[in-house]
Structures are given as structure tokens and as C-alpha cells.
Design a protein that fits this description.
By secondary structure, this protein is an alpha+beta fold. 40% of the residues lie in helices and 12% in strands. It has 13 helices and eleven strands. It has a five-stranded antiparallel sheet with strand order 10-9-8-7-11, with helices on one face. The protein has a four-stranded antiparallel sheet with strand order 1-4-2-3. The protein has a two-stranded antiparallel ribbon with strand order 5-6. The longest helix has 26 residues. It is globular, with a radius of gyration of 22 Å. It starts with 5 loop residues before the first strand and ends in a 19-residue tail after the last helix. The relative contact order is 0.10.
Length: 420
Amino acid sequence: MAELKQKKIDVTDLKLGMFVSALDRPWSQTSFPLQGFALRSHREIMAIRSLCQYVYVDVAKSKNLPVAELDTKGFDNKADDYRQSQVPLNLEHGRYTARATSPSSKEVSKAQKTFEQTALNLKSIHEQIRIGSNVDEKEINQTAGLMVRSAMENPVAITWIALLQRNDKGTYGQSLRSATWAIICARHMGMEEQEIKRLAAGVMLKDIFRTEEDEMLPDTMAIEKTVDKLREANVHPKIIAVVKYHREKFNGTGKPFGASGEKIPLLARIAAIATAYDEKIYPIDGSPAIAPSAATKFIYEQRGRAFQEELAIEFIECTGLYPLGTLVKLNTGETACVVKSNPQRRLRPEVMVLRNSEGARLGTPARANLADDNGKDRKIESDLPGDPDIDTNYIYECFLGRQSSADGSSKKGRFSKLFA
């Protein structure tokens, strides 16, 4: 039996024909086949880059891979319901500068006020449209603009504010959270700010008739009623298109028209991913909630089917493999919560350690940057389901207001009164 010769490869150096035999994380946390796979398309390389920092390549199998096998359907045996993108995305990743530091208390307070004001404005707009009143487009643009400016200035702050709305399971909370995820994705892609505002407005307005007399309406009926009312209110066509197509699927199996591929407007394709992500972590239909990381995995598994593959990967890149708020188990046995992503090392985010290796809750959560862990070399072993004994507000306060020192001590900080 031939000896297995593996070579550690940075994902940026991957090429077609290489046989990936191991990842920098457990296979169980991905949808890749456990036996390894050969890279047969650029689409597969993009998928690997979105999830890993490095992989191990089987040198012998890579050399023996026939060229004729390249550019086939790929490693995950895509079925007939897979749809390939026809038009490449116009991306400008460096357009908006990413923040290297954590948000200050002033920035977070500003983000919270923005979220609250947007919710009030949105409620007023929803009520006006439901009764058939004309809505000034300027009012819609101003409301969407509030969220967009906040997300542009500090995506970490607005993301945490959105996560803290987990108890708001109504239409407004779902619309605002989904709008947050959509804005952050569009920001990551480098879209024009005006287009991001229209995307945000569409996501905020998509659920005006989601419920009627406290009853959930079927998606098709809710969309039709909302679109009709938005047209009566003379809302911009691109905003209406987000509402009209946000339940469509890239492979043509969605509602209400069965539109597919690039026939679905780009903004609506982004809205579909953001909506699905929020409905997984904060379900409003009574289904069990799943962890943000599990929702990210769902988005990835649905690439090329429910969602355009390139857009799904863009979404995962901006939210992180372990999105903010994800509870994780470290290789030390400790329990932690992800509080800040690391774009350069996606598997090594910043966390707040909440329980020690024996499972005992720490008196003061300890802040740790897994990318620079003072020689401890802690890393994420797996994600965890929700813990009813862990209060996200408390974690948030510790992250932003009780800046933990290197020795684990904590200083009562500037943000401690926000949730008093």
C-alpha cells in the first residue's frame, strides 16, 4: 500500500487538480465528503477559501488526477436542481474600510439609538401602507439610510444590536435584523451606497402583510398584497422588486413566480439569503432555533440551489464561519462566545470565555483573541447549541464595557449601564 504523502497548502495557493485530503477543521463541521476530494472547478476552490485558512493535499493523488476529470460538476455530487451562475458578480471588496478595533461605547450607543429610531419609523411606514396611504419616498430612503450609515460606520456594533433583538419575534424585529445582515453583505461586496439603501428598504418592507389579524399568511398571498400596496404608494421599482422576488430560489423552485438565476434581481437574491439566515437563528414560525454557525452552514449547503453560489460565499465571508453570538467549545474544554470575527483568520475569532474546562461558569468572562492567544494556542473545536443560563446582554456588556485584562481581571466599564 502506497504511503500517503500530504503537503500543507495555504488556501490562496490551491489549484485545479489538487486532491484535498484534510482540512484545518473537522470534516463534520462542513458539507465536504469525508474521504477527501479533488478540486475540479474554480467554484470548489472558492468554497474552500471561504471556510479554511489551509488544507492538506495528497501529493500522489494530485499528480495522478487525469486532466479530463477537471471542470466536472464537482466534489459534492450536485444534483439536477443545481444551477450555475451565468453572470459574474461585480465585486469591490476594498471599497469600504474594515475596522480593526472594537466599537467604543459612544459608537455602540449611537448604533442602538439608530436601531430604535429605525424601528419607530418602520412601524409608522408599515401602518401607512397597510391603510393605503401614500408614503413619501424620502421617508423610506431616510429610514433605510439610518441603518445603512450605521452599518457602514461600524458593522460590529450594529450586528450586536441586531443580535440582541432575539426576543422580538414580530415583523419589525425580523425585518430589521434581516436588513442588517443584507446591508453588511452588500457592504462587504462593495456595492453602491444608493443600491444598499434600496436593498435595506426592500427587506424592511417585505413583511408588511406577513400577518393579518395575528394569522400568518401564505408567502404568495403576503407578497402579492405587499407589492400591490407598495405600487399604490409609488415606492421605487427596485425596492418593490426586492419584496416581489425575495422568496424565489436561484434554481427556480421558489415562490411566487418560480423565477430562476439572474432573472431574480441581485438585490432580491441578497435579501433571500439574509431572510433565510435570520429565520434560522430567530424562527417566527415555532420551529426550533439553530446556532448562527449552523445557519451559515445551511446557507453554504444551499448554494446553487436556493441561493446563488457566489452570493452564498460572499455572505459567509462577511458574517464569518462563526458569526457573532455563536457559542463554541474550545480545544481546552472551555465554553466561549464569539464576539468579533477575524477576516484574516476566520477560524480564530475573538471570544469571551464563559465556562472553564470543568463547565463551571466564570465569575468574570475572560476576553481572548484566538489569533493571538499569548502562547495558549486555543482554538475552536465545535460550535454549541444555545445555553439558557447564558445571557447575551451580559456577554455584550462584558465585551464592550468590562474590558478584561490579560490576567483575567475586569474593569467595570463605560458600557455597564446600558442594560441596567
